[in-house]
Amino acid sequence: MFAVPIWAHTYMTNVSIEGEKLEEGKCIVPPWSNENFPEKDVTSKNMLCRSESPQLNGGTFCDVNAGSKFVMHFHESGPTDRAISDSHKGPCLAYMAKAESNGDGNVWFKIYEDGYDASSDTWCVDTLIKNDGALEVTIPADISPGKYLLRGEIIALHEADRVYGEDKDAGAEFFPSCAMINVVGTGTANPGQYAIPGIYDKNDPGIFFNLWDGDTNYIIPGPAIYTPGTAPAGSVNTTKVGTGPVVSSPVVAPSLPVNSNSGGKSKACLSKRHKKCSSSSSSRKKKRSRSKKHQRT
Ligand SMILES: [Cu+2]
To answer: Where is the composition biased (Low complexity) (predicted)?
Structure first.
C-alpha cells in the first residue's frame, strides 16, 4: 500500500495563474512539515501559513496581475488526490499581506470568503470538492504592486460543536496555506490592518458552531472583505487604521524553533472521535443524513 497518512486533511499543492497550473509547490510557502494537519488553536503562530515563521527566503514569487483571477489548488495528500474529505464541511477564505512583513503585525486583509448557502445546503467545502480542490479568488485591482503572501484557508467544522480545548478533539480545524505572489499593476492602495493570529477567537460564532443542529445561519469568521477604494494610499505602516499597535518596518520575523511538539494535532485524527476524518462509507452515510438536518429549518 501507499504510505498515505490516514490523518490526511488538506493543503495547497499548486497554484494556477491565467489558466496555467504551475508545478507542485511552486510559489507556495511550505507547510511546517510537509503535512496537512489542521491547526486548531486560533492563537497559534501556525495560523499564519501553517508555519510559525514563513520561509520566504529562496522561495519564488509568481507574477500576478492586479485584478486578475488566481486559483489555489487544495488536495488531501498530493496534487492528484481528492480535495478533502466530504465530512469536512465549512467555509473557505483568503487573505493577503505584503510579504515584507513576513505576515507579522496588523498587515492582513481579507479578499475572499464563501460560507454556507442554505438554499442549496452547500458549504464552500462542497463546492471545493466539486471543483477538484480549485479555489478561485480575484486579486484586488487597486492594491499597490509588490510581493504579497496570499493566504488561502479552509475551515472544517465537524468538531466545532465544542470549543477548542474542551476536549482533545474539540474545535474547528483550520487549513491555511500561503501562496507567494508578486502583484503587477499600477494601484496605490495599501490595505492591511489585521493580525494573524488575531483575526479569530475560539468563541466566534463561525468557529464555535454546531454543524449538526440544523442551524442554517452561518456567520463567516474574520473581518469584512476589503472593498477596493477604501484603503489609504502610501506607506503600509504609517497610514493604516486598526485597533492594534502599528507595526513599523522592517519587521523581523521571529526565529522560533520548529515546533516538534505538535501535541494533539498529530493525534487528532488517530483518535476514535476523529473517525469523522475517515472516508468509510458508513461514516459518509452518517454525515449525509446528519447534514440533512440543515434542510429542516
Ligand atoms: Cu480533519
So the answer is: 250-262
Q: Tell me how far the alpha carbon of residue 129 lies from the centroid of ligand 1, in angstroms.
A: 15
How many C-beta atoms lie closer than 10 Å to residue 52's C-beta? 19
For the CA atoms of 138, 152, 281, 1, the dihedral, rounded to the nearest 10 degrees, stands at 120
The one-letter amino acid code at 105 reads G
pTM: 0.78
Rounded distance from Cα 47 to ligand 1 centre (Å):
16
**The dihedral sign for the CA sequence 238, 244, 248, 249:** negative
Looking at residue 55, its pLDDT comes to 78
- pLDDT value, residue 7: 58
Task: Give dist(CA 286, CA 212) in Å, integer.
Answer: 11
Task: Give the Cα separation of 118 and 116 in Å (integer).
Answer: 6
Query: What's the whole-number mean pLDDT along residues 205-228?
Result: 95
Report CA(7)–ligand 1 centroid distance (Å).
7
Residue 229 is predicted with a pLDDT of 85
DSSP, collapsed to helix, strand or coil, labels residue 190 as coil
